[in-house]
Amino acid sequence: VPTIGVLALQGDVREHARALEAAGVRTLDVRRPEELEQVDGLVLPGGESTTMWRLARSFEMLEPLRKRIEGGLPAYGSCAGMIMLADRIRDGVAGQETIGGIDMTVRRNAFGRQVDSFESEVPLTGMGDTPYHAVFIRAPWVEAVGDAVEVLGRAEGGANAGRIVAVRQGRLMATAFHPELTGDFRVHHYFADLVRRAMDEEE
Length: 203
Ligand code: GLN
Description:
Blueprint: E1 3-7, H1 13-22, E2 26-30, H2 33-37, E3 41-44, H3 49-58, H4 62-70, E4 75-78, H5 80-85, E5 86-90, E6 102-107, E7 117-122, E8 132-137, E9 141-145, E10 150-154, E11 164-169, E12 172-175, H6 186-202
Parallel strand pairs: 1-2, 1-3, 3-4, 4-12, 5-6
Antiparallel strand pairs: 6-9, 7-8, 10-11, 11-12
């Protein structure tokens, strides 16, 4: 059984841990490098990316996180976690850094200019036939992706139709929405499978 860590510096850590348990994996709260060493995969929760970045820096976790992700650790970021996995961000605060890993440009609070939060049906590649009921809270969107990035989902309907809201690049994935909040854990199951396959490849 894989152990999937949840970066527990800030954000909705408990909700992700519960969703991962529903997907049949062990979970571990990750705050320090020693804990990061023990996990087979990592979830970066939703929350506030500026705070997450500042805390990661003061806990001396930025470099360890970058090294493990460069070394092939599977990771999944939701909302603020999506921002943390982006190689480039727009509308960050001055000096805001990410961990990086996914060759994409993400705009912070992109939908938030119109509305703070909203819900929408998003069809997701590889996660079943029914669209995903996605909850967006001051969400980013993905403005540009490199060739290695697979788009898994786009917003539908309204002015924001076509905006990229779910992506995957190899062992890294990210969603602009919060699948930990709805009780539909297809995204966590998908990530748990990705982690299991990564573990099989390492053996
Ligand atoms: N707006 C937040 C940020 O910039 C993300 C919001 C969220 O994670 N729900 O980090």
